[in-house]
Amino acid sequence: MIKKIGVFAIAMILAGCASNSKNLEQMVQNEVVDTQKPLTLFVIDTSESMTKTDKHSGLSRMETAKKNLKDIILTLDTQKTNLGLISFGYVKSTDNGKDVCSLNTDIKATANVDYFNAKTELLQAQKDSYTPLAKAIDEANSFIKQQPSKKVHLIIISDGCDTCGGSPMTQLKKLESENPYVEISTYVLGYEVEEYTNCQLDKLGKYYDIKDSKDMAAALNEIGTKLAITDGNWENGVYSFNINFDFDSSYIKPEFTQNVQKLADYITKSGNKMQIQGHTDNIGNSDYNTHLSQRRANAVKEKLIELGVDSSKLEAVGYGQDAPKADNSTKEGRYENRRVEAHVIK
Q1: Nearest CA-CA partner of 282 in 240, 243, 319, 316
Q2: Helix (H, G, I), strand (E, B) or coil at 21
């Protein structure tokens, strides 16, 4: 009886997985992909080493990568780019009993952020699995041919060498040569990679030496900003409300409410905590400006709470005139400095 119950439970789990997968695909079954937009293609390592713990987040490398990936996706503007996903690090047994390196083609191209992040959530690091990075790049080549775009941004996150006998560099050169009319840029996040393995990964493209979760978030934000694919309110991981307050005022004008709503949506979906930072120009007394900037930060915090954000996710800090963004010697610069920004608390 125990064995039967166990088998039944496994069958129910598998049926649930199949049902969830089917429901996810229904989210994009009628989507028409605009191939005139660039394709940002994430290639994610799910090999066994990704089960190790990230020293900053306290989560596994896999869960850390998923969290950072989902966060950056929420800051992107899908009017500017499509999204693709390949995960690699799987082992599949052949008929003769030998293991072969395999991978998953998770998403070819979509502009549906909820679908992308739901698929990302399903990624799991595989026990006793290998790192078929070369095969993943070859799969990216197939992607690009099937979904031709004028620009492709290839972003690789991996914590080690190819362990399946392939050559990532050879496959990348093949990808570039077989798609001569596609502008391809490659970014590699080497995640806690041993120094001796850098010789492989750092030759593939712009290389980021990632030590922990904070490094990964910073790198992804930098890439998104550099490629100009983020939402206009985001720059290098900082959200600007673009609420330019009137002189000596903390009143949020109605036309800026939409910008506050956008951050409210981000916090709700990401679960991140945010520090709301208030700033002023340099007109007047420094102490007074510090209090004024605190009032502005508080005003935005209260508006976020009014829009449904949990107050425990927010802290408000006034920085006064000490962190200008523009030149205070001009009227335009002072107007720009009367601002509020939001920073993710890591």
Answers
A1: 319
A2: helix
Architecture of the CATH domain 240-345: 2-Layer Sandwich (3.30)
Q: Do 188 and 202 touch, CB atoms closer than 8 A?
A: yes
**Residue ranges of the domains in the chain?**
35-233, 240-345
The per-residue b/e assignment along 30-68, b for 16 or more CB within 10 angstroms, e otherwise, is eeebeeebbbbbbbbbbbbbbbeebeebeebbbbbbbbb
- Coil/strand/helix, residue 161: coil
Inter-residue contact 188 to 158 (CB < 8 Å): yes
Contacts 24+ apart (CB under 8 A), 137-140: 137/43, 137/168, 137/171, 137/172, 137/175, 138/166, 138/171, 138/174, 138/175, 139/86, 139/88, 139/103, 139/105, 140/41, 140/43, 140/86, 140/175
DSSP three-state, residue 128: coil
* Domain 35-233 part of CATH 3.40.50.720: no
* 91-148 tens-digit pLDDT: 766 656 666 777 877 898 999 999 999 999 999 998 878 889 999 999 999 999 988 8
Question: What are the angstrom distances between the C-alpha of 17 and each of 13, 28, 148, 159, 211?
Answer: 6, 18, 31, 28, 33
Angle between helices 61-75 and 213-226 (to 10 degrees): 30
Which residue shows structure tokens 């709503």? 261
Can you give the length of the chain in residues?
A: 346
In this structure, the number of other CB atoms found within 10 A of the CB of residue 169 comes to: 15
Give 267-314 pLDDT, tens digit per residue.
999 999 999 999 999 999 999 999 999 999 999 999 999 999 999 999
Contacts of 328 (CB under 8 A, 6+ apart): 281, 282, 283, 321, 334, 337
Q: Which strand ranges, in their side-by-side order, compose the sheet holding 238-240?
A: 234-235, 238-240, 340-345, 273-278, 314-318
Q: Name, in order, each residue with C-beta under 8 angstroms of 1's C-beta and a sequence gap of 6 or more.
A: none
